[in-house]
Specification:
The complex is a heterodimer. By secondary structure, chain A is mostly helical. Helix content of chain A is 74%, strand content 0%. Chain A is globular.
Chain lengths: 402, 449
């Protein structure tokens, strides 16, 4: 009964959260944006979780785990569908190199900063490397919802800037998902004794193959003239199947579905239609996904909050610096007079960032996960919340004089 | 061809995974993702294939369940099937809601003579035919032990009642697939739904009478005669309240209908269970509120009283195909082929008598109303389906009558297999012949093409 009550509660909150009307009550820019992106549902989940109200108790959360796997698949598919060749060629080949350099810089600086910081509290922890890697990879992610919302409200002149930001964010999201897929390859899932026993790179290759196969199946099924209900069924079926297969094989469902989505985007004439269909269902799904993730959050010691704040600061500074060094060069154009400040516009971390956090949690979940890894998950979720509050200011800074 | 190819790839992948990680398939994570996705896609693709050979898609979903289930290929163990059972609750609630939404007062008023005739005569004829058959045939069924006359009467009455049951879900699925609309399809759906409700009430009445007879107490003890109508009206009342709430949702929010309906479906099933438990604890009288009736009446009131049926009809049509497909595929996994193998002769006879009863009843009613001969046959073909409620209630027989109950349960399952295979095909044919099937290539709720 409690499980059902919990699920009902979640669903009703997701419905309420979907209504924009209650957002209008919020006066401040940051507050309004924070609520429009839906990230507040992490907090709602935390309040419903075992650490507070207890509606979502461990048993309920245990049963909700399949939902998280499906959510990861869904998010991956959505991200993949946006990787259409035409859109990716928008800024020329050189832009990739500079974005890649931006990413490498960010990875290096966040890793170095966090490694120095975490070594103070966890000097000899065997999981230090993994924790730092996960935090650094996730630092690459940028939540695109707040960006899109900002641009919706911005004047016509500022819109090209939004396109640049979304382009950089998409490329970095893909890099993050792939790197996370590689990281997964190094470790067996904590929960069970299954998963492919292959070297990491072969595991990555296997993920690519499985993702391509899923994409091809989707493509073949979508070739027929289908009604909306059929498309929903096919996508749900393949996301469930692919997510379950990924879980069983110990590979990343995000990566598999990202590839499947990319295959569909580049070989199907109906990818736009499919994207809109997925988006129609996505929001409530995403909100429930965030709530479940929030319920797993254990703030406990003030250390997690401190580390999260430090992580946010290191990431933002690295983004600002890397943006000035690399993005400012490639996107130098009269249309983007503040191109050197582009990095500040990428502070939001929800979306793929939250998905990677959940993915990490699923991966480390077991009877007694190591303290550092558990804390890494909490730090990630808290940082996502903090970054979501900060991101409107970053975006305002980038667009100030344009 | 594409569908068959994709289906083969999926079957191959699932087979490989099953072979590589046999123990992992007991995990909830795997059952609710991989297994669920596989069943959904496989059943859907099967349905597409059966549609090409002009059979109902529903038959394809059922066959997928039979083939992949524990009896044939064994891709789904009984535990895997059990883990997906929550779909049944959801699907039944949506099916009942859809059925209620299909019923329009003005049409029902126009056809009241036909409807009342069918609702009285069909159950009565089928009940009498099956009762008589079983009363005389019971001693010859399988290895059934010799039963006392009273028990023979009770069992024949219970099985006779179950023979009345139809399958509203199958009926609705075929109507939606054929995009049928008109007096014929609406009257068939209405009679089917009412007969199912009648069966639930009669079955509990006969069970209680059997209990009272065994205990040697008069049958009116326990407020039995009052309780059943009370349950019926309370369910209707709850349906009215639910319809009011749902219409309020449309007025105030009017979005995310899918999630709202999921909440409603869970709420109704759980609430009716909780109310039964609470009434048993507090008043010592377990009130059995029927979720099927609550949802159906909610749909009826939404359409005819609050005028908000269109929103829910569109939502169900657009989004619930996955639930319906898995529901029928799961029903397929339930169909017991061993039972059919063991008792096929008696089962065919039983099914034949039931179908004959239906045809005789439909002919009599429609002859009185001076309907053409062809129409009489079409109605006869429409009341063959049998599943859902019958399987659920049949499961009570071995528990209530340990002596011989298991054999009768097997017989009932075998009959249901036959009816559920023939029923949808016959009904689809009837819809096409009636001229009400507008798009036979249309998929179940909301499909394209």
């Amino acid at each position: 009964m409690k499980t059902i009550a919990g699920i009902l509660f979640l669903a009703i909150l997701a419905l309420a959260g979907h209504r924009k009307s209650f957002v209008k009550l919020l006066p401040s820019r940051a507050g309004r944006f924070f609520f429009l992106t839906g990230t507040e549902f992490l907090l709602v989940g935390y309040l419903l979780g075992d650490s507070f109200l207890g509606v979502l108790d461990p048993a309920t959360l245990e049963r909700a785990r399949p939902f998280l796997i499906v959510g990861l698949g869904w998010i991956g598919l959505l991200a993949g569908i946006q990787l259409e060749g035409k859109a990716l060629r928008m800024f020329g080949r050189a832009s990739y190199l500079w974005i890649l350099l931006y990413g490498c810089f960010l990875l290096l600086f966040v890793s170095a900063g966090l490694h120095a910081l975490l070594r103070v509290w966890f000097p000899a922890d065997p999981h230090l490397g993994l924790a730092v890697s996960v935090l650094a990879v996730t630092a690459l992610c940028t939540g695109q919802t707040s960006m899109a919302l900002w641009m919706q409200q911005a004047s016509k002149q500022k819109r090209p800037l939004g396109i640049v930001l979304q382009f950089v964010a998409s490329i970095n999201d893909v890099i993050a998902i792939v790197l996370f897929g590689v990281l997964i390859g190094f470790h067996q899932p904590a929960g069970g004794g299954f998963g492919l026993s292959l070297p990491p790179l072969e595991k990555l290759a296997f993920s690519l193959l499985l993702g391509t196969l899923m994409g091809l199946l989707l493509l073949m099924l979508f070739r027929a003239r289908l009604g909306e209900a059929d498309k929903v069924l096919i996508v749900i079926g393949l996301v469930l199947f692919g997510g379950g297969a990924a879980y069983l094989l110990g590979v990343s469902p995000l990566l598999i579905h990202l590839i499947a989505g990319a295959v569909l985007a580049n070989f199907s004439l109906k990818s736009d239609e499919t994207f809109h269909l997925l988006m129609r269902i996505e929001r409530p799904l995403y909100l429930i996904f965030l709530m479940i993730a929030g319920a797993y959050l254990r703030i406990g010691a003030p250390l997690a909050v401190l580390l999260a704040l430090a992580y946010v600061a290191i990431r933002a500074l690295s983004q600002g610096a890397a943006g000035a060094m690399f993005l400012g060069r490639v996107f130098r154009d009269p249309a983007y007079p503040r191109a050197h400040a582009l990095g500040w516009g990428l502070t939001s971390q929800a979306g793929i960032g939250a998905a990677l956090a959940v993915h990490f949690h699923l991966w480390i979940a077991g009877p007694s996960p190591p303290l550092l890894l558990n804390m890494t998950f909490s730090v990630l979720l808290l940082a996502i919340l903090f970054n979501e509050v900060l991101s409107p200011f970053g975006l305002a800074y980038v667009t100030k004089e344009t | 061809m594409t569908h068959l190819f994709v289906l083969s790839v999926l079957v191959l992948l699932q087979g490989l995974l099953l072979k590589a990680f046999p123990h992992a398939f007991s995990l909830t994570e795997v059952q609710l993702t991989l297994n669920f996705g596989f069943l959904l896609l496989a059943a859907y693709l099967f349905g597409e294939w059966t549609a090409r050979i002009r059979l109902p898609r529903l038959t394809g979903y059922l066959f997928a369940g039979i083939l992949l289930g524990p009896d044939v290929l064994g891709y789904f163990s009984p535990e895997s099937v059990a883990s997906l059972r929550f779909i049944d609750e959801l699907a039944l609630a949506f099916i009942a809601l859809s059925a209620g939404l299909e019923l329009r007062t003005q049409n029902l008023k126009r056809q009241w003579r036909l409807l009342s005739g069918l609702i009285v005569v069909v159950p009565l004829t089928v009940f009498c035919a099956i009762f008589a058959f079983l009363y005389f045939a019971l001693p010859r069924v399988g290895s059934l032990p010799a039963l006392p006359a009273a028990q023979k009467i009770v069992l024949a009455a219970l099985l006779g009642t179950l023979a009345i049951a139809r399958s509203p879900s199958s009926t609705l699925a075929v109507i939606k697939e054929c995009r049928a609309a008109g007096d014929f399809s609406e009257s068939v759906l209405c009679v089917t739904v009412v007969m199912d409700i009648l069966v639930i009430m009669l079955f509990s009445l006969f069970l209680a009478l059997a209990g009272a007879a065994e205990a040697g107490v008069p049958a009116h003890t326990g407020g039995l005669w009052l309780r059943i109508p009370a349950e019926f009206f309370l369910s209707l009342l709850l349906g009215l309240f639910l319809a009011w709430f749902m219409s309020g949702y449309v007025t105030v929010i009017r979005r995310e209908g899918i999630f709202f309906l999921l909440c409603v479906a869970f709420l109704v099933t759980r609430l009716s269970q909780a109310l039964s438990e609470q009434s048993a604890i507090m008043a010592g009288l377990p009130l059995h509120l029927e979720p099927l009736l609550i949802c159906m009446s909610a749909g009826f009131f939404l359409r005819n009283l609050f005028g908000k049926g269109a929103f829910y009809e569109t939502t169900i049509n657009r989004s619930f195909l996955p639930i319906f497909v898995v529901f029928f595929a799961l029903a397929g996994t339930d169909l017991d082929l061993d039972a059919l193998r063991a008792m096929w002769k008696v089962a065919i006879l039983y099914a034949g008598i039931r179908i004959a009863g239906v045809f005789i009843a439909c002919h009599s009613v429609l002859a009185l109303l001076r309907a053409p001969f062809k129409t009489r046959n079409l109605y006869g073909m429409s009341f063959i389906t049998q599943a859902g409620v019958s399987i659920g209630l049949a499961g009570l027989i071995p528990r209530r009558f340990p002596e011989g109950g298991e054999i009768l349960f097997t017989l009932l399952l075998a009959v249901i297999v036959i009816n559920q295979i023939i029923g949808p095909i016959a009904f689809k044919f009837a819809l096409e012949q009636s001229g009400e099937a507008r798009g036979t290539a249309q998929k179940l709720p909301g499909g394209g093409r």
